Amino acid sequence: MRESGCPAPLFDSHVHLTDPQFDADREAVLARAAAAGVSRLVEIGDCPKHWSRVLAFARARPKTVRCALGLHPYYADQYTDELLSRLAEHSLLPEVVAIGEIGLDYTRASVPAPVQTAALRRILAACRRWEKPVVIHCRDAYADLRAIVAEIFPSSPPPYRFWGVVHCFSGSPDDAAFLAAAGFALGADGPITYPKNSALRAAFLRIGPDHTVLETDSPYLPPQTRRGQRNEPAAATQICAALAELWGMPGHEAAQIATRNALALYRLG
User: Fold this and answer.
1) Rounded to two decimals, what is the model's pTM?
2) Minimal CA–CA distance to 19: which of 235, 217, 226, 222?
3) Could you give the angle at which helices 251-265 and 236-247 cross, rounded to 10 degrees?
4) 3-state SS, residue 32
5) How buried is 86 (Cβ within 10 angstroms: 0-12 exposed, 13-18 middle, 19+ buried)?
6) Among 49, 143, 221, 259, which is least packed by CB within 10 angstroms?
7) How far is Cα 114 from Cα 68, in angstroms, rounded to an integer?
8) Domains with residue ranges and CATH for the chain
9) Residues 6+ apart with CB under 8 A from 63
């Protein structure tokens, strides 16, 4: 059922619907998303062994699904020049609207931080040459991410609005302001609805709606009403409603701005 005040269209800019958790009811999940007003999705392929599956998923749904291909920091030790060449070839495919997710994770990744930062620098530099937006994962590594962004993206991104997005943003208000000023969108996910996340809400309040995109990261990070359950794109309505309340605007306005931002991020008409 559509969340009151957040009508269609909504754009869930980061999902993992090819995850095995959806094998039993993937089409029903997509139907619930459509019924909730989620009209577009970007499926994320964060490991090379999953790229073909993600591409097939997007190709089967050309009106609603695009994808991003990358190398999650969990797998950063798999980086090679040959992998970068494969990414370059894939970046030209019409289904591939971004490279990602890529990034830094100093909490859960077993790959040493220097290996993560080296891989991230090389992929980000390549994406700037390719003029391809990036989807960045960052967990407990914002100081290093800020340094790398300042090194590789020293100016605003003409003729585009965004260099990319920091997916599932979890940093401080200062981190948010820095990344927005550097030309990045920030992804708002289920944690924006968690009662204890006042600092996260302060970050999105500080940057405002013009640098925010909606994400569910399905099947991960469900909103407060679904804690402990598998997440789905239909939950984007709850994230939208929480942001609208935070910004003091009608839900339909928050939905329109977030969708417009996602279209600009992925350079879609």
Assistant:
1) 0.96
2) 217
3) 110
4) helix
5) middle
6) 49
7) 24
8) 10-265 (3.20.20.140)
9) none
Single out the residue of 93, 101, 39, 36 nearest to residue 68, CA to CA. Answer: 101
Q: Report how far apart, in Å, the C-alpha atoms of 119 and of each of 20, 28, 198 are.
A: 27, 37, 33
Least confident of 153-167, 188-202, 221-235: 153-167
Q: 3-class SS at 60? A: coil
- Token pair of 201 as six digits: 């809400």
Contact 135, 107 (CB under 8 A): no
pLDDT in tens, 15-50: 999 999 999 999 999 999 999 999 999 999 999 999
2, pLDDT greater than 50: no
How far is 161 from 105, CA to CA, in rounded Å?
A: 26
Nearest to 226 by CA among 236, 215, 235: 235
Structural tokens at position 188: 């708002």
Residue 78 in tokens: 């798999």
User: pLDDT tens, 237-260?
Assistant: 999 999 999 999 999 999 999 999
